[in-house]
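Review form for a predicted model. The reviewer records the input and the model, then writes brief findings.
Reviewer: anonymous (R2)
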Amino acid sequence: MSENVREQIEYGGNKVPIFRENIAEVYIALQPPDAIPYVVAPRAMEPDKIVKFFADRVQKVEYLREKMLKRFSKSQSERCSFQTGDIAYVMGRPFMLEVNPLGRSKGVKGGARGRANVQYAIDTEVSLMSLYVMKTGDYDQCKSAFLIYGRAICTKNATAMAKGFLQRIAPDANVPVVRMRAMRDSFAKMEAGALWLSEDIVPYPIDCLAYAVWQAIASARSIDEQEEREMVQQVIPGWERARELLVTKAKPYSNQ
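Model under review:
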């Protein structure tokens, strides 16, 4: 967790920490394995509004706590295995997973037709991601449902980042199409005119995505090393931490 805790909310005999971040919206998440809730809020949000936000969602919090405690009473591992009660990350933000059966469509047999049979739903207020799959015990189906959301968020943000970076480096250049696939050699690279992202970038904080996109764009434009260093300090203030996380491939949940 972050170290910038200054405020707390009393709840059920526990102290719920409030973390102030440079974000636009407030949300509630749970810390495994004890399912203690915490709040992440914009730096300028008034304390009374944060307390009300939490109080209005206590029923949801209790529901999530029950699910997580049941899951972690069976397994103490914090490694996401895509079961109800697990925690997964998208761009550094934790989501508790809830795996639900997807109703079988007429004529569909076996429910093993890849992405066509998986869906997801997001509750951003309490950081809940519901996965809907044909076979709830099938790891690959659950992972596919999760990655559909992860890809959508990462590619959307990467496209905006690439556009902003190119405006500084080469204003007349076309913004590359952003695609995602499994890659082991890098988190992002330019190839055949497209910007490719590794699926492994999904859990990392957004500054890591920004740094990976910057490196791919900059390397393809052959920028002078000194100029590149000065520019990255301007466009990604947290680039040193982002580089360290990507180079060491640190577990995302250890850096929240």
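Findings: The chain has two domains: 5-138, 149-255.
Further findings: Residues 106-112 have pLDDT under 50 and may be disordered.
Recommendation: see findings above.
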